[in-house]
Structures are given as C-alpha cells and as structure tokens.
Amino acid sequence: MMHIIGTWIAAGLTLAIFSFLYKDNPFYKFAEHLYVGVSAAFAILYTWAFDVWPMLVEPMFYGRGAASAADRWILLVPMLFGLLMLSRWFPKIGWLSRWAIALTVGIAAGLGITGQIQGILLPQVAGTLVPLTSLDNVLMVVGVISTLVYFYFSIAQKGAVKVGSRLGMIFIMVAFGASFGYTVMARISLLIGRLYFLAYDWLHLVR
Amino acid sequence: MKKEIPLAITFLTGVIIVVTFFIPHQPLGGMQQRLLIWYSIVLGFTLLLGVDSLLRSNLQKIMRRAPGWPYAVVVVAGFLATLAAGIHTWATTKDLLSLGSSFMYIYTYMIVPLQATMFALLAFFIASAAYRAFRARTLEATLLLVTAAIVMLGRVPVGAEIWDKLPGLQDWIMEIPQMAAKRGIFIGVALGTIAMSLRVILGLERTYLS
C-alpha cells in the first residue's frame, strides 16, 4: 500500500515539474519549493550521519576509531573551528568565523596544488606525450598544443600564434559540439526514464 | 588579529597539505588525512549556517505574509518532515539509509523523482536553445552544429540505421578531437588552479577574508 501511495506521490511531483513546459504555475512552484526544503534536510542529515558523527562524535565521545587518548583530544580542534564557523550568528564575534574559513580555504588550496598536479596535470600531459606514428596521435598533440595557444593571452595573437590560435578554436568548437550532443543525450535519457516511470510504474501501460 | 591569524592558519594548513604529499612519512603522513577529516567536520558545521539562512528567510516571508508566502510554508514543512523522518530512522535503526525506513521513503518517492524530472526538463530547454543558437553562419558554428548532430545521432540506434559508420565516427570524435581540446582546457585549468592556490597560501589572495 505504501508503495502505491509513494508511486502516486512521485507521479504527481513528476507531472507538477513537467507542467512548467506549459508555463510557470502553482503546481510547479509547489514541487520546486518542496524540492528545496527536502533536499536541504537530506544534505544536512547525510553530512552529519556520514561525516560529523563517525569522524567527530563517535571517536570523541565513545572512543570508537580513536587509537589513543590524544586522538580523541585532538578532535577538539576541528570541533572548535566548527563552532567558530557558527560565530556568524553573533555579529559581535562574527569575525571569528574567518578562522574556520581560513582552515577550509588553506586545506582546499593545498589540495588544489597537489590534487591538480597528481590528478589532472600530469595524467593529461602524459596522455599527450605519444609517438607521432599515427594520424590520431598527431591530431591529439596538435589539438592540445593549439588549444593551449588559443588560451594564451599574454602575447599578441598574430603570425604563427594566430594560426595556432585559429586551429585551437576549431578543436574547441568540435569539443563543445560533442559535449553539447553528449549532454543533450544524457538529458533525453533522463526524460525517457521519467516517461517510462509514468507509463510503467504509475499507469501500468507498458508491460 | 582579525586578518593575521586567518592568514597564518591558511598558510600553515596549505603548506602541511603540500609537504605531506611529498613526505608521506610519520608524523607528517598522518597529518594530511587528519586535516581532511577536520575539513569534513568543519563543513558539517558550515551546512548548519546554510540551513539556518534558508529557514530564517522563509520564516520571515511567512511572518510578513510576503508575496508567495504559502510556498515558503512548503519549504519549511518539507524540511521539517524530512528532518523528523531522518532523526526517527536514525534513532530506531542507527542507519540513516535503512531500507524501508521513512527517510528512504522520502528519498525514493520525493527526492529522486524531483531531481530526475528537474534535469529531464532541461532536455526541452537545451533543445530549444540549440534551435535558436545553432546557425551555420561561420566555420566554427558549422563545426559545432555538425559535431553535435553526429554525437547525438551516433549514440542512438537510428544513427546506425542512417549510416552504419556513424557510431564509429561518434566514438572517434569523442576520443580524439574532443579529447585533445579537453586536455588543453584541463591543463590550463590545472595550471590556473595551482597558481591561485599558491596565491592563497602565500596570502596574496585575501578576498575570502572580506
């Protein structure tokens, strides 16, 4: 019974969102606002249940996962920084939240260097360093270099640079077209999924 | 005090993350993992600020009977109902994602269809935007149009019916010219991110403190 009620709720919300195709209307607004409220609660519950609880509360207050007493006490530091973040609720001491922001910005910046080098820069460069023994490999190397030339704005775009830049633009347009087509197909796939839900799960038109 | 301490914290944490990458031995090796845990914990507290802002603005709208205030009721009611279901699930099963729980019921029958339909709706708008924007006036625009058409047709069975080599051509476009341009863009983005991260760690970029 609960499954049937759930399917009707899901179908109603699906149709309410699709009603926007006609024009903005109260059904769409209802579904849109419900999505905001429900998603916000989901995000906070998920983060606290899978991050804050196992990483802070359990080791600190129950000793689970903490190898030593020092491991438990050191958790006072992130807890303090977390509480400092909440100091924005009190205008007089709101500036203290900068300390917590600084911690997260510092960690993100550190990861920005190591993560980008290890995860993006080196693998992409390695993928480009290929022997020029086939047309595909030549296209790959020329495509990467010309794209980089297109985005190199520190020198005047004339002469050989202009030619490289123009070639880079061609590769970029092909990439944008391909990405666009790929995105459209992904959205169409979602649309088919929703229509299939309505026809199969809700109306039982498809067997 | 209001600027120097945050700058010092940013510098220290950023340097620790970078140093521990190159020297993954104790005690430095454990510091990176520890900082990442701290990062997740602080972000958990930060979410409370976001939720507070969302609820505060909607409650104010309700109290003032501002235009559209009934929708603010929907936001607050949706939030509270999901929160109550989550806390109830957590208290009874100790597993937030327990199958058959009230929280998973909301997730399955509200969040999933709402999210999927929102993104599916974009299929219509992206198609109508393409219809208006795609005009083969220049070489670049023509390339964009032709490539998009090949990729779209090459990924569905009707594409192979039209021309049996279309799926292969689509694969080649994705693997070679598309990948080449994306590689160039990724390398540029990575270099930009590294440069910006260095500026932040060294205290040259301070806009996050304003």
What does this protein look like?
- The complex is a heterodimer of chains A (207) and B (210).
- In chain A, 77% of the residues lie in helices and 0% in strands.
- The longest helix of chain A is centred in the last third of the chain and has 43 residues, at 160-202.
- Chain A is an all-alpha fold and 207 residues long.
- Chain A has a domain at 130-207.
- Chain A is extended, with a radius of gyration of 27 Å.
- The model of chain A has no long low-confidence stretch (mean pLDDT 93).
- Chain A starts with a helix and ends in a 5-residue tail after the last helix.
- With 210 residues, chain B is mainly alpha-helical.
- Among the domains of chain B are: 1-53, no CATH class; 67-133, no CATH class.
- Chain B is 81% helix and 0% strand.
- Chain B is built from eight helices and no strands.
- The two termini of chain B are 14 Å apart.
- The model of chain B has no long low-confidence stretch (mean pLDDT 93).
- The chains are: A mainly alpha (207), B mainly alpha (210).
- Chains A and B meet through helix 1, helix 2, helix 4, helix 5 and helix 6 of A and helix 1, helix 2, helix 3, helix 4 and helix 5 of B.
Q: Proportion of β residues of chain B? A: under 5%
Structural classification of chain A = mainly alpha
Instruction: Name the poorly predicted regions of chain A.
Output: none
Largest interface, Cβ cutoff 8 Å: A-B, 114 and 119 residues
The share of residues in helices of chain A is over 70%
Q: Order of SSEs of chain A, N→C?
A: HHHHHHH
* Main sheet attributes: strand count, strand direction, barrel closure of chain A: none
**Count of DSSP-assigned helices of chain B:** 8
What is the averaged pLDDT score of chain A?
93
| Secondary-structure element series of chain B | HHHHHHHH
Can you describe this structure in just a few lines?
The complex is a heterodimer of chains A (207) and B (210). Chain A is mostly helical and 207 residues long.
Show the helix and strand layout:
The complex is a heterodimer of chains A (207) and B (210).
Chain A: H1 2-18, H2 26-62, H3 69-73, H4 76-85, H5 97-128, H6 135-150, H7 160-202
Helix pairs in contact in A: 1-2, 1-7, 4-5, 6-7
Chain B: H1 4-22, H2 28-64, H3 69-93, H4 102-133, H5 139-154, H6 157-162, H7 166-175, H8 177-201
Helix pairs in contact in B: 1-2, 2-3, 3-4, 5-7, 7-8
